[in-house]
Recover the amino acids of this structure.
């Protein structure tokens, strides 16, 4: 593996970033499955929470298609931060420690301020997405009924509505890619090391830039597995979300290197 040049960050030496082969995402998934099997109760508890959240969104927003779509996509915009407990389980397994559900939740307290900053940024992106979606539907398709099934039917039948759908997908996809790029490494990094929010995000962006094709493929796998969870009425998320979370931890460990003499220290 080749190491990317290491630019300075906040006056410190930033962690080194690896370039990896195209097959590594499959290795991450295998390692994630291994972590899930090693600590199934805590891992599946997180998956159950994701599934319940999806079901609740469906129950309360089913009759309003716009709210349903925005709420569902917004929920998964902040999912990388919500998966912090899964990263903590993998982190502890790496050092030979088992985890309960509540022990894994405690991991976020060690770097809580910096994680909170990232959480606020994700919340802002989610709010922006909700506002953009509302404005698009209000100005470009004010005649669309709020019922979800009717909404999908009208978009399919109308050329004007298909244009709206295309614009909506392009904007939403762009925001999702931004969230992926800034969180895929930064969240596990903030849980693992005493580093700051800005350095973590820059490291994540550098890792994606150094492995653009690999990380694009990894993003595709994450979306495909998540979509599989959706079509099973969210029940598939009970297993698939822990699998993705644990695999994402191994992606971080594969892509980022901290030399022995490099600060910040690893959180114990």
């Amino acid at each position: 593996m080749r190491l990317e040049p290491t630019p300075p960050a906040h006056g410190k030496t930033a962690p080194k970033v690896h370039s990896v082969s195209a097959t590594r995402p499959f290795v991450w998934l295998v390692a994630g499955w291994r972590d899930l099997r090693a600590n199934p109760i805590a891992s599946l508890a997180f998956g159950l929470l994701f599934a319940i959240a999806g079901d609740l969104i469906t129950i309360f927003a089913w009759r309003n298609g716009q709210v349903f779509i925005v709420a569902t996509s917004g929920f998964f915009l902040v999912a990388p931060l919500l998966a912090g407990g899964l990263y903590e389980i993998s982190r502890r397994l790496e050092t030979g420690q088992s985890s309960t559900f509540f022990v894994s939740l405690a991991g976020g307290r060690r770097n809580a301020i910096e994680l909170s900053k990232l959480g606020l940024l994700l919340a802002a992106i989610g709010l922006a997405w909700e506002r953009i979606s509302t404005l698009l539907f209000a100005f470009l398709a004010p005649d669309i009924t709020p019922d979800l099934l009717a909404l999908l039917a009208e978009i399919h039948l109308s050329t004007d509505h298909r244009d709206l759908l295309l614009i909506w997908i392009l904007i939403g996809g762009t925001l999702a890619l931004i969230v992926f790029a800034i969180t895929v490494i930064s969240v596990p990094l903030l849980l693992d090391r005493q580093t700051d929010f800005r350095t973590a995000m820059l490291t994540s962006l550098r890792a994606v830039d150094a492995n653009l094709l690999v990380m694009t493929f990894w993003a595709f796998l994450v979306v495909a597995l998540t979509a599989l969870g959706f079509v099973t009425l969210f029940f598939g998320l009970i297993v698939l979300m822990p699998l993705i979370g644990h695999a994402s931890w191994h992606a971080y460990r594969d892509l980022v290197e901290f030399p022995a003499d490099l600060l910040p220290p690893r959180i114990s």
About this structure: Strands lie at 2-3, 8-9, 12-13, 16-19, 256-257. The chain has a mean pLDDT of 83. The longest strand covers residues 16-19.
